[in-house]
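Hi support team,

I submitted a single chain yesterday and got back a structure, but I'm not sure I'm reading the C-alpha cell output correctly. Could someone confirm the output below corresponds to the sequence I sent? I've pasted both exactly as they appear in my results page.

Thanks,
R.
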Amino acid sequence: MSVFRDILTSSKIVAVAALATAAMVVGPVSSAVAVAPQQPETSRIATAAKTKVVPKLVGKTAYDAKAALKKAGLGYSYLPPKGSFVVLSKNWTVTKQSPKPNAKVKAGTKIKLTVVKTSTLSSKSPSTPSAPPTPTLTASQQQAVIAATGYLSDSHGFSYQGLIDQLSSSYGNGFSVQDATFAVNSLNPDWNAQAVIAAKGYMSDGQGFSHQSLVDQLTSSYGNQFTPAQAEYAASQVGL
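Hi R., thanks for writing in. Yes, this is the structure output for that exact sequence:
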C-alpha cells in the first residue's frame, strides 16, 4: 500500500508541473478580444444612395436606351401611345424622356421613356415639305388666265402692268383689275424675255430706233410700261 501511495503522489506532482509549464508558454489570456472595425450602417446607406447622371436617350431605340440606363445604374419605364405595347424594343424610338439629360438622380431611379414605333417616324420626312393645295379658281379667274396666256404667246411682248391693263381695259377684255392681276401673277412669265420680244418688234417695223428712244418707248406709260432695267436689257439684246 505504501508503494501504491508513492506512485499516486508522483503522478500528481507530474500533472501539476505540466500545467504550470503550459501556463508559462501560453501566457495570460486577455479578457479583451480584438474585433475588426465594421463600416457604420449610415455609411452603407449613403453609398447606396449615390447620385447618377441621366444620359441623353431621345433619338435612341428603346433597346439602346434600356442598355444605356442599365450601364448608368438606372431603371426605365416605357410610355408607348395609348393602346400600344412595346414587344420588340428595337422597333421603337425614344421621343421624350423624364427626367431630362444630365439631371442628377438617385441610383436605381426609373427614367420615363416616351416611345413610338420607328416605322411611323420614317414615314414622315420633315425635309420634304408637302405641296401647297391648288387654289380653286372662279370662272372669271379661269377666263382671265386663258386670255393672258393668249397675249403672252402672240409674240407681241407684254410687260407686267401692260398685260394687266390690256386684260382689264374696256377696250380690251374688260376683266376686273383683281381678276386680271390674279391671272398675270399666276402665270408670272420672264418679263425680260417679253421686253426683248417687244424690242424686236419695234426694230423690225422700219421706224428706226436709237438705244435711248427704244428704252423710252419700252418704258413709256403710253407704250409698253416695262421697267427701266427690263428695257435696258432688251435694248442691249437687240444690239443697241
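A quick pointer for reading it: The CA atoms of residues 93 and 105 lie 23 Å apart. Let us know if anything else looks off.

Best,
Support desk
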